[in-house]
Amino acid sequence: MYQISPGTPFIDTPSLQASPSSLSLRRKAAPTGTRKNITPEALVPFDAPIQNRKYRTPSATSRKELPATFARKRARSQAFEDEEEEAVGPTLSEEDAIKAKRLQNTLAARRSRKRKLEYQRELEDALELERKDKEMWKARALVLEALLRDKGHEVPRIDDA
Q1: Gap between the Cα atoms of 100 and 106, Å rounded
Q2: Segment 127-160, tens digit of pLDDT
């Protein structure tokens, strides 16, 4: 068995034990994949210029001298050529192709973010409409129940599920 020395402080205090109520106060909301209170209009405009990279540390993707797709293309073209010339960095045409691909990817990401926010806004609007409809029908049901009781009819109890 384990022996605790007399000088060891008692650590099983109520302040250290997590109660269910204190856990719910500390729990963060589940990630939704979007930032709060941002609208499609607040996003970077589609036609805005591409922003320069401002990395504090080297990026995992831009650390490579040549992206994988261009490296494969180069390997294929060199396999069928007789030249023994080994190119270390990207050639001028490859750099242009890399820039074009990055631009295409950036624009696609902007469109995707905008679509996602618009879809989320549509869902939120539909949910709000459903809530209003529910409240309206609930109010109508309560009025009709009151009318039935007023006329002396028994109103069956329906549990809200």
Answers
A1: 10
A2: 999 999 999 999 999 999 999 999 999 988 877 6
What global pTM score does this model have? 0.56
Query: In angstroms, rounded to a whole number, what is the distance separating the alpha carbons of residues 69 and 75?
Result: 10
Query: What's the CA gap between 118 and 14, in Å, rounded?
Result: 48
CA distance 72 to 92: 17
The C-alpha angle 14, 16, 17, rounded to 5 degrees, equals 65
Q: Identify the residue whose tokens are 């106060």.
A: 25
Which residue shows structure tokens 């109660």?
19
d(CA 156, CA 144): 12
Number of alpha carbons in the 13 Å side-chain half-sphere of residue 110: 17
Token pair for 31: 């990630």
> Rounded to an integer, what distance in angstroms lies between the CA atom of residue 25 and that of residue 153?
47
